[in-house]
Each structure stands twice: as structure tokens, then as C-alpha cells.
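Q: Hi! First time doing this. I have a protein sequence and I read that you can turn it into a structure. Is that right? Here it is:
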Amino acid sequence: MIPLLTIISCDDGFENVNSNPNEPEEVNSGVLMTGATRASTNSMVNHSFLLSNNIAQLTAKTLRSEVDRYQFTAFTTLWLEQYNALRDFRDAELIAEENENHATQAASIIMQSNIFYTLTMAYGDIPYSEAISGTTDGNFEPAYDSQEDILDGEGGLLDRLQEANSLLDQASNNGQTVDGDLIFGGSPQSWKKLSNVLQLRILLHLSNKTDVSSEMTNLVNNASLFDSNADNAVLNYLGSFPNEYPLFPLKQGDFDAVLMSQQSVSMMQNYNDPRLGRYARPDNVTDLETFESPNAVYSGAENGDERGNCNKGGSRIGSRFYDYPGHPVGDTEANGIITTYSEQELIIAEAIQKGLIAGDAEMHYKNGVEASMNYYDVNIDVFGWDSFNDFYNNSGVAYDGTLEKVWEQKWLATFFHGMEPYYDSRRMVYEANNGNGFETAAVPFFVAPCENQNNGDMPTRFLYPGNEISLNNDNYNAALNNQFESNDNTQNGVIWIMK
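A: Yes, that's right. Below is the predicted 3D structure, encoded as C-alpha cells:
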């Protein structure tokens, strides 16, 4: 018996000796929230800079301009980085649920919903219901859910956001806050507003597929929404790692490969729009005062100019987006944008203009334009205006009852709003073509890119990453068969939201 007792005693001591007292046995949900928020938002800033702003012709690439020329690929980093963040948000949700922290549980659901929205709008059908279950149930070959089910089905994003709202109500009643919250400092009420704005965004895209009038009306009339720029869902960056604006570490050559586009510069010059001084750096910068000078000169590059056969000149993007030598303001101004009050108001204005909901379209439109200008802290007087009302009434920007006017201001206002510039411009092109194609020129403030490789048609999706072919082949092929007659992983495959 003695050897047996000795073995048991040794085992008991072994567990204690080999435990690390400085390493927690369970990761805190707040730590996961902080890391995943930073990772997913940084990824969206980078992809807005490299992809979305350029596809939407807000900016233009002058090197490696496949995006502008409509030669889409898988853009695999978007897929991988967002799914990696999803895993941590899901773990945060489960830990918070176990600890009955309804606020953190809800916030993690909202962030997951926004990421799933980003991915399905980029690729079409994607792994959703089984997407991040591999670490818990061993399923490393998740099925692809249909985009319709993801956006609007039972257990889809709209349902999940409503679930988050219910949890946030419980959290508010119990005095709970969101752990590790880099966006709103823990406020459940602010997270509920974000949830409702994200629902409005999804519903506007769904309005081409189904009647969303009652859902939008209920949100606008009865739900808590953003009241001002103070409610904006943004990650405020600091001046050092790890809270550094993701574009700051770029080499100057990489940064200068993206310039302001001819389309956006022309529109802002046409209106003498003070946002031009924030979005762009003047071509004739000689000192800091030139940024705020009536003598500043701006130009735009033509999208798709790979070989220098078109207009290659263009202003750099503005100082808030890049830490220019001698002008280090980015660390106090740069944000990672999820959504804003300006976008919300222009969504509502468009919904009213289309007759989806009742209300004063001009009031919301004007709110959206003014909020965008206030967010960028523009210098009205430098551009010759006495006040915002002077600009609004005398520049040509005032609401004229047309959808085009709402679209152009929403286009300008969603600069650096993650992937939304691409999704919104694609929707505008689709609607302008009456659902019969994606000819870019159907929207007056877009043009067919120089040297474009897709007959002037805006591609409808990104390609699935190649590792899906090797690691999840059966489900990958099923997703292609379920969506596209050609069964091909093509940039012109028309996803459900665009059919």
C-alpha cells in the first residue's frame, strides 16, 4: 500500500508545483473585448485605406491599383483578421454569459454582428452559425450560411442585435457596465444606440429585397439612436503602440500610393466644401499654415491609373490620417470608425426620400451633412463661408428632393467608415441601373475607371480565400453552387442582396 499512497501524494503535489500563479486560469472577458476591438477596428482602417475608399472612388491608388481597375481577389487578410477577432468576441460573450455580465455579453454580440455583416457583404454566403465553433465542438469545416439567413433569417444579425438590446436593458437595470470597452467607456446605453444604428444600416441594404418599412419606422420613432457626434462609435487612438493609428507606421512610399480621387476632389471643389481641407493635404504645402490657407491647391488622381496613361496627379490624404513630419496631429485626431451620427442621419434621410418611412427628409439630410463637417472640425471661414448655414444655403449642397443629392453626401460622409463606402457605392450603382447590372457610370459622380478590366462594371464581391478550397472544400463548393449559376468563385457573382 505504501507505494500506491506515495504515488497519489506525488500527483497531488505535481498539480500545485506546475501551476503558474501569475497566469489566470480563465481569460477575463474584458481583456478579450479590448484586444478584439482593437484588432478588428485596426483591420477595418487598413482595409478602408487599401480597398473600400478606392473602390468607392473617394481615393485612388497609384501603385498596385488592381482594386481601382476592378480586378478583385480574395483580399484574404480581411477574411482572416475578422474571423480571428470573431473568435475572441465569441469567447468574451461566453465568459460574460457564464458570469452573468449582460453588458459585456451584449457588446460582444454587437461587435460580432458588425463583423459578420462586413464579411457577408464582401463575400456573399459565409460560415456563420458554425463559423467559430471549432474550439468548442471540434468542427473545423463549418458550413456556409446563406446571406439571406445571415442578414434577415431566424438567429441572423437583426435577431442577434435585438437579443443584445434585451441584454443591455437587463444590464442597465442591474447597474452593469461593459468590461474592456474601448468604444464607449462601458456605457450600456451607448451600446444600445450602436445596435439600433447598425440595424438601420442593414435594413437600408435589405430594402431592395423586402419591405422593411415597419422595422425602420419602429427604430426611428421608438428606439434610442445617436443624438449627436458625441455618440459616434469610434475607437480613439493614442500616439503609441498598441493604441496607435494603424496607418502611422506605413513607409511614406506606401502611404503615397493612395491619393485623393478626381471624383471626390471635384465634388468638394464644386461645392467649396471645407471637408476638402481635412480629407486632403494641399499639393503646395510649404509650411503648416498652408493647410489652413485660402491659397491651398488640391488635385485628384484618376482611379485605375496603373501605367501612368491617365491623370496620375493627386493630393495626399489629410493630416489626421497620417503622421506627417512636423505636423503630428494624427494621434489626437485619428479614429477607427464603426459608424457615426452623420451616417445615421443620412440613412434616415434616404429612407424618407424613398418613402420607406415618414418624416422630414431635409432635416435629417441637413443634420447628416452638418454632423460630418463638425466631426472633422472644418474651418468654414478659410473656404469663404460665414457659417454652416451659409455653406448649406449657398453652395449647392442644400437638399433638392432627389435621391442623388442624398447619395452624394452620404458617399462623402462615409469616408474611412470601414467597408461601408464599397457596400454603399455598390448599392447605389445597382439601384441606378434598376437592378439590371453594375455599370459604374449609372451614378453621376462615379466614372468607369481608367484602364478598368471589367467593362466598366463594379465587381459585386470579393473572392473566397484559397485556403477555403484546401481546408473546407465541400462547404466551399456548396456555397458556390448555392449562389452562382456558373459555380465559379468570381468577382462578378451576384450575391443575394444584389439579386
